[in-house]
Amino acid sequence: MLLVVVPFLPELVILLTSLFAGLLGCRPGSDAGCSIGPSAAEIIRHALDAGYLVGSRFGDGLAVLWLASCYWLITLGWPRLWSRLLLAFAIGLVCAFVPYFGPMLSISHLVNPKCEPNEGGVGDCIVFGGDVGGAAHQVVGLGWRILEGAPLAIGMFAVYAIVAVVADVRGRRRALGSLG
């Protein structure tokens, strides 16, 4: 399951960084920097860049390779057809939506009067005393990539489901044939 989580590490980093910054008393709309090693804003900016890279590459076709790897591991790890199909469907849904909306949703709690990310890239986006504007504006536009990535993920699940059902039926026929 670690293979499924890896593409979404940038979102996790953003959420954990903002949680830790909040525990230290920092506020998203503050002009004062929030140092937690490097600044919280710098960590969030780099994580947003990574989230954008993941989402844009998934839309470019990386989703096909990623899902093929996940489906192969599901086939090796789960013996029952229904459990393989259910797990593959769940992973397909996650990969159809989260790479495109995850980065945007992960910063939604950081929106403040000094940070209003938008597709036009208008205005600065000051979070925890640092500007994350370029990266924040980029991930808002990433949502449109779902038009490319979601059909890939849904198509991959359909292909996997057909192959899994056919393989299961053939396996049962062979088992019945060897008994007779």
Could you explain how this protein is built, in words?
By secondary structure, the protein is mostly helical. The protein has one domain (2-179). It contains six helices and two strands. It has helices spanning 2-5, 9-23, 40-77, 81-106, 133-141, 146-179, and strands at 126-127, 130-131. The chain has a two-stranded antiparallel sheet with strand order 1-2. The chain is elongated, with a radius of gyration of 21 Å. The mean pLDDT is 90.
Low-confidence stretches: none
Mean pLDDT: 90
Overall morphology: elongated
Profile the largest sheet: 2 strands, antiparallel
Main β-sheet, spatial strand arrangement: 1-2
- Give me the strand/helix succession: HHHHEEHH
| Percent of residues in β-strands | under 5%
Count helical runs: 6
Count of all domains: 1
**Rg from C-alpha positions?**
21 Å
Distance between the termini: 40 Å
Number of strands: 2
Helical content band: over 70%
Structural class: mainly alpha
Keywords:
180 residues, mainly alpha, transmembrane, 2 strands
